[in-house]
């Protein structure tokens, strides 16, 4: 389903001017970008449990950068500046918030809680009966 979500994210940057076939093409490429982005993050050892980075960031950047192909009122340069601005803002804000959290309450649970599972450790119930 992340492929469908990535396709929707990619076409959301400009849903009005592409033809239906071009919109489907943009969505399909967004899904492919999500798939390979997920594989890339896994190869780096990064844990993105729900696939938010490939779905929203990678497919969103692609969708934003292809807007000029269907909308003559914008340019690649404008879209690129927008992408860089949003990525920079998001990185700085996230880095700041996570740094504050790490230095105050911490970002990780204990090793024992990881082994037990956060559902059991924090809530007291087993949410899923599937275990490694």
Keywords:
single chain, 132 residues, mainly alpha, 7 helices, elongated
Secondary structure layout:
Elements: H1 2-12, H2 20-43, H3 52-65, H4 67-70, H5 76-104, H6 111-116, H7 118-123
Polypeptide structure, described:
- It is a single chain.
- With 132 residues, this protein is mainly α.
- Helix content is 71%, strand content 0%.
- It contains 7 helices and no strands.
- It has helices at residues 2-12, 20-43, 52-65, 67-70, 76-104, 111-116, 118-123.
- Helix 1 packs across helix 2 (20-43) and helix 2 crosses helix 3.
- The relative contact order is 0.10.
- The model has no long low-confidence stretch (mean pLDDT 92).
Quick recap:
The chain is an all-alpha fold and 132 residues long.
Main sheet properties: none
Structural class computed from helices and strand pairing: mainly alpha
Shape: elongated
How much of the residues is beta strand, in percent? under 5%
Report the average pLDDT across residues. 92
End-to-end Cα distance: 23 Å
Rg from Cα: 19 Å
Helix content: over 70%
Listing every helix as H and every strand as E from the N terminus to the C terminus, the arrangement reads HHHHHHH
DSSP E strands, number: 0
Question: Segments where pLDDT lies below 50 for 5+ residues?
Answer: none
Q: Please count the helical segments.
A: 7
């Amino acid at each position: 389903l992340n492929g469908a979500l990535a396709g929707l994210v990619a076409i959301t940057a400009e849903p009005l001017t592409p033809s239906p076939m071009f919109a489907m093409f943009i969505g399909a490429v967004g899904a492919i970008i999500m798939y390979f982005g997920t594989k890339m993050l896994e190869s780096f050892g990064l844990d993105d449990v729900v696939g938010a980075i490939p779905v929203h960031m990678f497919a969103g950047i692609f969708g934003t950068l292809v807007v000029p192909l269907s909308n003559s009122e914008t340019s690649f340069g404008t879209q690129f500046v927008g992408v860089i601005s949003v990525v920079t803002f998001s990185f700085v804000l996230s880095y700041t918030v996570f740094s504050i959290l790490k230095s105050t309450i911490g970002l990780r649970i204990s090793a024992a809680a990881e082994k037990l599972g956060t559902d059991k450790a924090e809530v007291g119930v087993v949410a899923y009966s599937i275990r490694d």
